[in-house]
Input
Amino acid sequence: MKYSNKINWSFVAAITVSICWLIGDVFVAGFDPDPAEYPLFSKMYADKVNVEFATLMLEGSTLRLMFGALIGALTGPLLLPATWLVYQFFKDTQKWYAVFVYWVLLAGAVLSPLGHAGFFYVGEIYKAIYHTQADCHPYLLETGRGFMKMLNIAWGAAIGVLAIGWISLAVCIILKKTLLPQWMALLTPFALTLMIIPVKGFLPLPYSGWVGGAIFNIAYLVFFSVLLFFRKKLSKKQN
Output
């Protein structure tokens, strides 16, 4: 396949996976509940659960949460060509810093689907607790703690690795190691995420929940959309 075709298909993959993960986030975690409305968790079991996560997905149907988890997890492979695309914007892809950024982002991409899918199980177990008799709760609460531990490890690892990768890319952009202008460092996903977070507080329901759940992938979509405008620079690099 020609280099230009690889770039084209990588852009298709990057935009598609950004949209799919954004939709997935909205469906699986796009809620903004008031924990006080669920005293079972905010009061009775406040010392046994993470109240924010225990109440986050109570309003989501099983079908909605499942769709949100699967559309992200099953399109995860598209993150691989998207990561390769970012790598192509380095002036010299043989330099250690370019290879470092590429492999760290690649590792984050591989780790992400499990963390994303984990939200489904956490949501379902706390819904089960909310809708069952109290004598069932001790076992379900213990199971919920296990699910939360799994989510924290899987999602935390993915986010931590991706943060290192995107911050490193931003530094490379600032140091003019890429084909991108220095201001693009502000539009890398990690930096964009920090700028989008305050926006949630100004939005009414249900939009605050949508944005809150999909912040990182909104940043992904913006980043790759802007990257598309710099595609001509890749053509010059090829020539």
Notes: The mean pLDDT is 95. The radius of gyration is 20 Å. The chain is about 75% helix and 0% strand.
